[in-house]
Design brief:
The protein has about 350 residues and is mainly alpha-helical. It is built from twelve helices and eight strands. The chain folds into two domains: about 160 residues, no CATH class; about 80 residues, no CATH class.
């Protein structure tokens, strides 16, 4: 375990023997998240006890039944609340979401139901019955800030979201040529582990010697080239290649998460030059209308024209030379009803 930018970072070995750096949650953040969750639980207990008390009073239920209902409500709120939240959200709870925390396994994987249940049962003793004293002592003594429930369940809490304003590692700048090349990358085969390894390598470049930079860079770039296509331009350094791939991956992820603008907003944002171009194009299509077989046809389909005999600027189709009145053929591809001759 070490510190990076003032944050305690723990090295986690995954099931595939990959070492990952994960930021451990600080004790004040965990304490505040726990206080928020306890506030919600106490509020739920008060409301449910009030409802149960009113129901028992109105129905005249005996004391044993009222006690059983109260015990059930207490177990559901005290144990069921954290277990349900952490199981469904893979390690989250309202308090943890507010502080950007999450519970994970010791190998960095998501928390499972068994682990959430062990944490919830241990919290009954170390937090509710003993007022959090064992949890406080254990968190201060543990390297990863684990309370007793974490020690029994094989979990710990990580800082998933950092406060606004805290700077993260900045990737090296990407040249315009590589940015254009990166727009056509096929990165569906790039795994999260490979991308994380490349990110950690670029973040630690100042700490590495030139020889280590070259050796590790070529090794990691080879792994990325096996999962990403097309290949980089000849002569591209490994650092520049990895920076371009990670920058493109980050941009696509941001674009996927960004909400799409409303149609009205997109129209309003159109520049005057683009609007003039669009108007000129529409005019060109209008003037380029062709008349085929008595029906006005455009590039986009068939235009409507008045029926024969109706007032208009164009003569009726039967007035054309060489076609007898009443024996003109129906317009081809024209929509609508055509009366028999």
């Amino acid at each position: 375990m070490h510190e990076e930018a003032g944050t305690a970072v723990a090295e986690v070995v995954t099931g595939e023997a990959v070492i990952l750096d994960v930021p451990c949650a600080r004790f004040p953040s965990r304490l505040l998240a726990l206080a928020l969750d306890l506030l919600i639980q106490c509020t739920l207990l008060f409301v449910l006890f009030l409802i149960v008390g009113l129901a028992v009073t109105n129905d005249g239920t005996n004391g044993a039944t009222a006690g059983a209902i109260a015990l059930t409500v207490t177990i559901v709120i005290v144990v069921g609340y954290p277990v349900l939240w952490e199981t469904l959200t893979r390690g989250g709870s309202p308090g943890k979401f507010a502080l950007g925390l999450r519970v994970v396994s010791d190998d960095g994987g998501p928390e499972r139901f068994r682990q959430a249940l062990v944490r919830g049962l241990a919290a009954v003793v170390e937090i509710w019955l003993l007022l959090g004293c064992p949890a406080l002592i254990s968190s201060l003594l543990s390297e990863r800030g684990k309370r007793l429930g974490d020690l029994f369940a094989g979990t710990f809490v990580i800082q998933q979201r950092f406060p606004a304003g805290r700077s993260t590692a900045v990737l090296p700048a990407v040249s315009p040529e590589l940015a254009v090349w990166g727009a056509s990358l096929e990165m569906s085969g790039l795994t999260d582990q490979t991308a994380e390894t490349a990110r950690r390598y670029l973040a630690r470049l100042p700490e590495l010697t030139p020889a280590a930079q070259a050796e590790l860079g070529e090794r990691i770039a080879g792994a990325v080239r096996a999962q990403v296509s097309p290949l980089p331009p000849p002569g591209t350094p490994a650092i520049a290649y990895l920076s371009a791939v990670l920058a493109q991956r980050r941009n696509r992820e941001h674009a996927r998460l960004a909400p799409s603008p409303a149609p009205g907003t997109a129209q309003a944002a159109m520049s005057p030059a683009a609007a003039g171009t669009a108007g000129a194009g529409a005019a060109g299509v209008e003037t380029g209308t062709a008349k085929t077989g008595g029906t006005d046809r455009t590039d986009s389909g068939i235009a409507w024209r008045p029926p024969a005999g109706a007032a208009g600027d164009e003569p009726a189709g039967s007035a054309r030379e060489g076609v007898a009145q009443g024996h003109e053929p129906p317009a081809r591809d024209a929509g609508g009803f055509v009366p028999p001759a």
